[in-house]
Amino acid sequence: MNAQPGAVVGQPALASAKRPHGRARLQLLLLPATIAALLILVWVAALQHIAKQATAASRHAATEADAWAERLTERTGRILQRIDQASHIVAREVSQGRPVDLNELVRSGAIGVDGSLLITLADPAGRLVASTQPFTKPITVSDREEFCIHLESGADRLYIGKPLLSRVLDRPVLQMSRRLTLPDGRLGGVVGFGLDPAALTERFLPAALGPNAIAAIVDHNGVVLSARRGSAALADKSIDAAALERLGISGTAHLEARVGPLDQMMRFTRVLPLADLPVWAVVSVAQDDALAAADAHAITVRLRSSVASAVLLLLGALLVRQMNRIERARADYAAAIGTSLDGFFLLDAVRNPHGEISDFIVKDVNERGAALFRRPRQALIGQRLTVLLPSAAPSGFLGDCIAVARTGTPLEQEFRVPEPQLAARWIRHLVLPVPRGIAISSRDVTQAKEAEIETRRGRALLHAILDHLPIGVSAKSAREQDFGTFLFNNAASRHLFGALPGGELGRTLHDLQPAAIADRMTVISREVVQTRALVHLQELALETAAGLRWVNITKVPVASADGTVDRVVTLAEDVTQRKADEDRLRAAQAELQRMALHDALTGLPNRAAFQAHLEQSVQRAAAANDAFAILFIDLDNFKTVNDTLGHEAGDELLREVAARLTQAVRKSDVVCRLGGDEFTVVVDPLGHPDDVTVVCEHIAQALHRPATIAGRRVQVSGSIGVCVYPRDGGDVSALLRGADLAMYQVKAVGKNGYAFYQSDMVRAASIRLTIEQELREAIAAGELRLVYQPKRRLADNALEGFEALVRWHHPQRGEVMPGEFIPVAEQTDLIVELGDWVIRAACGQVRQWRDAGYETVPVAVNVAARQLQRGDLIGTIAAALHEAGLEPAALQLELTESAMLTDPMRARAILSELEALGVVVAIDDFGTGEASLARLIEMPVTTLKIDRSLLLAAERGTDGLVLFEGTAALVRRLGFRTVVEGIESEAQLALATRCGCDAGQGYHLGRPVPAAVAEAGLRLGLPAAAQSRQPGVIVV
């Protein structure tokens, strides 16, 4: 085998690379100087250009000021000339002795001015005698400066004054005037012209002069007659005439900006006088406005120059850096082979007799290459490749190297090394063709390869984990050529977005979802790529095989090693169940909120909602200066329904009342239930005071209709208190207090009605509260006492008992009449406590009389309706009799018809218990209530006390006598004992006796007396009248 020797490459090249290059060093020295020269040229040219632009802008501003000053002079001159001509015409008319009609002159066009100009005519005394604008009161101008000048001077010229307040128009005008001279030379008056100062300069300045440009008309004294800066008028200004002189009157505007005469700004100003008039026209352009464009251009030029400078500096830095790199590369290249981490091999080709390459021989190798074979460098040089790598068969690595040498195509490959003598297990080769063979760059990639293998294993494990996550995870390409194609898609994602039979990799979301959803996701993915920020989508609706699902989606940009976002990871969480739970929770919270503001029984707004609505109504009415009213409704005798028919029936009645109230009010009104049997209505708005009366009437009518509750017809009514905002109160508490007081007023006068709040109700309520508190204290302190009024048998005037009446001796106010404190007690539960005290005190007094040796005489006490409804009446009576050691017959009870009407079923049950106990019951004030005799026979009562009103009626006339006699006869035939109340005369006693009444009571038979005085009757030793007891009925 004739092997051709291969050339060893490297050492001469390395030596030449290390030689210094003087030319490169010279270039490095000249480059900074060249860059600095270029920078100086750029900035000199830029600054010259900026200065030229500023000069041109200043010249243009001065030219514009000149031009517009001339235009202002011409415009103002035309206006003043027309006024001067008009004054001449008026003066001529007056000098020729003709009357002057100003309005006719204006209408006819004789004086050539329009109607917006105020023209006045004053007589020689300065009194205004004519005007083109009407005036209603006498006006004099004799005190005005122009009149005084014309009065003293006979000059026939137009006088231009300063702007003054017009006494005709009541606004500032520029006043001009001319003396009117009579044919005999005397002063004939003054014609005046009032011009709006703004008319001289408004709509004059063009926008091109800038927002701070000024146009002004100034008189010879420096008074500004009219001035405007931009679109805004300048008022009450004056200019020093010397300042105008310095600016240069009649000359051109200065190219240098000077301080302006009106606002101290730097300006280009032109001042021109008006021909034959002591007036100057001033046009001034602000330097800031004039140079704005030039300044902006200067900024642009400086910016461009800065950019050019930066580019030059950057270019120079790059060139210097590049040249340094070249120098370093030349120096580093020599050491690269020796210090490289790769092993370098230079191999010459070995050819067979046919000229074909059959092997390679090592001509040179670096230290790193020798280390791969674990041999010294010299031991490898001259070795054949097939000797070093026996596995390099012609069909393997050796064949690959031969192909590189033959075709000239480089080869890069990575393979596992089977030879145990090599230090590496994995090697990456780069085989390059060289003139005499090949060059091989070899690197030990064992660690990287094993790490890659481990990475693949970890990736497989990660995919397995992700595939079992309950959250959908997918990765899609962010590269433009395959944007949106799946790179990874776990099972949960396939379940949510859909799956394809052949897999989703390389496919897009458009293959799985409707176009609308896929397009939206694609747009969002592009935004993620552009912004490099996470995007969260909440509760996205997806159509899946399992139906509609709600998904939270998070899109995450993922960047490659070079920082480019090349994929987007999508996390998809199925929140269908959680959303359903949240919806249910929100619904529950809404229901709780509704329940918190609504009454559970009736569905009406509750107390909290009423309070909030009332506060809103107060705020609305206060802001709108409006009125509204609140109604406080308390159902009458509602407890009777609860006690007789049960609470379920009571609840049914409350719902019925709520429905009726809602139907009875207007749509804008709000009905609320405060609790129990209390309702409120906010009548808002209140357009007319009668509106609330109509609502109250409708409510009363609605409540009055009988209702069927638990199979029973129930009649219900309500007591309504009305309080009107702001008449009766200005805040919520005052309105509630007023409505409550008005409601209690209705209760006090008989219920079933409505009343408006009155201011005296507060005082009455205060008195009632004071009486209630003091009465409660009086009961505890023992300030109450009983007096006893005798009841006598009419047949023989014998004493048959007493009626115990309570009296109150107040320590400060003395005797308090029962009519003051009994009604207060009856309106509260205090009547129960008071009634219990009376029962115990009466029984105690009877016990004292018996202990003193007197025969027991029955004592009657009055029982109120609330005692029947709320008190333990049977227990109280039994306890009082037991404590006093008395038999039940020693105590009698008197109940009014109305007391039993309140709750007839409960009253009948209590009366039956009293009958069983042995206590006698009498109906008091019979004939004044609503009970009927037809039902009295069903009630366990024995005695009827005929009210004194029937006795008085019998004395007044025949009808009353018939009524009294018939009542007494009917009651007697029914078996009741009769006691006539209020016998105060012998005639009344005779009438009661003649009608067969059993007993009587009144001042004629005996006044109420203390217990000690009552003993005088007991000393007679008369026995108590026998009590016959027959059942009776009370109908309510």
Gist of the model:
The protein has 1036 residues and is of the alpha+beta class.
What does this structure look like?
With 1036 residues, the protein is α+β, with helices and mostly antiparallel strands. Helices cover 45% and strands 24% of the residues. The protein has 32 helices and 38 strands. The strands form 7 sheets. An 8-stranded mixed β-barrel has the order 29-30-32-33-34-35-36-37, surrounded by 7 helices. The longest helix is centred in the first third of the chain and has 74 residues, at 22-95. It is flat and about 175 Å long. The N and C termini lie far apart (145 Å). Residues 1-21 and 1022-1036 have low confidence and may be disordered.
Keywords:
1036 residues, alpha+beta, eight-stranded mixed barrel, six-stranded antiparallel sheet, 24% strand, flat, disordered N terminus
Question: How many whole angstroms does the radius of gyration measure?
Answer: 60 Å
The global form is flat
Helix content: 40-55%
The profile of the biggest β sheet is: 8 strands, mixed, barrel
Beta strand %: 15-25%
* Backbone structural class: alpha+beta
Put simply, the count of helices is: 32
Using DSSP, what is the number of strands? 38
User: Stretches where pLDDT falls below 50 for ≥5 residues?
Assistant: 1-21, 1022-1036
Distance between the termini: 145 Å
Strand line-up across the major sheet: 29-30-32-33-34-35-36-37
Mean pLDDT: 81
